[in-house]
Amino acid sequence: MAFLNTGRFRLGTAIGLLLVMSVTARAEDKAPEAPKPAAATVFDAASVDTFSGAILAARTADNDYDYDTAVQLYRTALRYEPDNIEVRERLMVSLFMGGRFDEGVKEADILKDDPAVARIATIARAIDGIRTKDYKKAYDLLKYDGPNELDRMVNSLIAAWGQFGEGKVKEAVAAAADLEGPDWYAVFRNYSAGAIAAAAGDIDTARRKFSETVADREQGSAASDLYMRAVMALATIEAKAGNKQKALDAISAGETFAPNYMPLQAFRKQIEAGKVPELAVKTVEQGMASVLFAVGGALNQSLTNAPDRQSAQDIVSFYLVTSYALDPAADTAVLLGGLAEGLEQPERAIKWYSQVAPDSPLRRIAELQLGLNLANTGKIAEAKAHLESAVAADPKDLRGYIAYGSFLSDQKNYAEMAKVYDKAVEVVGPIAKRTDWSVFFQRGIAYERLKKWDLAEPNFKKALELFPDQPQVLNYLGYSWVDMNMNLDEGLNMIRKAVDLRPDDGYIVDSLGWAYFRLGRFDDAVVELERAVELKAADATLNDHLGDAYWRVGRKLEAIFQWRTAIELKPEPGEQPKIEKKIREGLPELPTKAEAPKASTTEVAGNDKVPAAPQSANDMEDETATGQSEHTVAKGDSLWNIARDLLGDGQRYHEIIDLNPGLKRNPDILQPGQMLKLPAAKP
């Protein structure tokens, strides 16, 4: 989890969720209707009466993360083939993933000699041994002399908590504090040693170890969730010792590390009010859970950009679900909610966010995420009411406006989105902070979608004033300028800078390539668009763009291949017929230099989830005209965007020139108020 991973309000980890909330900017203008739920077909797992039927249905449930159904079906399969090891392995994993730890341990005991699941079975059996005070069994299981440094650290720290459970506090603290290994061990061993000491009442040792953890920001940045736990633990022991100022100093260190971290803000208010918080980790179970939480959170963070993130998330889920089974902590539930979102499982995300207690500092963020996930399940009206209520509950909290704005953006309700961000700017007040950049950025997007560039541009500039090197803003504003044939050098340099800042972001690289395309620099466009497709495979828009560029440089067979690939990748419904037309007919011939208009205003998306360039040469509005008509030129209009918006295809600008002969000499010069004849829209 990177602190500034800016997907649409869904960031995958607790700290990311609490710090940065950017929203998706889409290209379409009309709000979609809420999806109508299909008639549900109820599957009765108890009705399955064959091995093959049970195993096939179990695998489907497993792949859908429906672990309760998977467990039932795997057990049905085992009734027919009780010695089937593979089925029992999946049963054990499904039990753990479903939070049914005690049942999973029973299966782990059966599979104790199975190398395929040795890691999971060993950890689970060892934890169970410590819980049941069978320390010898636990320590025998946790002995490790293999090459995996992570496994060695996890085993050693869990064993240290076992020693704490036996009453061997000094040995337990030493086992954690003296653990030898690579540099990245430091934040884990120091926190664990401090937590053991604090739980035993050794405040001096706890203070020293937590302070060492908080001081090591470099290693802490690789385990951000654990680092923030250390900050709050240090503040807690100082508050309990009567050192209010030292407690506030610890919180200040955390605020420097993670500005606007909501639980820390609530924690500060609590201590400033003279309330003394309780230690978060006081028992053996909570201690072992903290080890699993630390490792699960750090793995989730490191796997943010992993190529096989979905399968890697199963490993993260095991650690975090097991941690939650031992200690149902709010930050663990939020992490698990983020994981479910990453797997596009909104129902599971809602379940996890609902677990956060009403009095938890994390309840606010859980409520906002819950509202967004309601929308993802198709419950649009319920999501809207939920998010409106969340804003009303705390009208000074920017996160509520950002969450609601995100929802409105997804619904293409840009007018209401603009009003919401207007209110958010009022909350920001006259002195904006760097962290407020996204409020102005999203307000700019709302006004740009409403075709109010005179209101949009100042917001983009304000966002850059607050955060000069923010790649999304650089990309969006730079492309908009290029597309409107204004500030060309500055705009193109902005996009290049965005690419320099995020060279592996396929969408931003695509934006640079498409800017080159719109400027007629087709060879340059091919270079960048090829790289964009390599970086972000399986995106219909990027393949469509590359097809257009290939066609313009004469690589027509490759162009058709890219367009066909775009069709296979299921583009937006309105785009598919336009791409199919290009496959049949190719792109229209380029006009002569005298006729060719330069770039024009078009939509541009600018975040991690959607392409950072407009839709392609197809573009964008459905064709609605039934005959010739007239159009009054507005500020910012160009022939391309008039053709695109009113005729359904920017390439039809030459037809406008044919109907308006006076444009042939200077097709790039349009005056506000000028009347143009428009051709009929094609059926």
TrEMBL record:
Give start and end residues of every TPR repeat. 437-470, 506-539, 540-573
Which residue positions does the secretion signal occupy? 1-27
- Keyword hit for Repeat: yes
Instruction: Write the record's keywords in alphabetical order, separated by commas.
Output: Repeat, Signal, TPR repeat
Domain LysM spans what residues? Answer: 629-678
**Where is the stretch described as Disordered?**
586-631
Q: What is this protein called?
A: Tetratricopeptide repeat protein
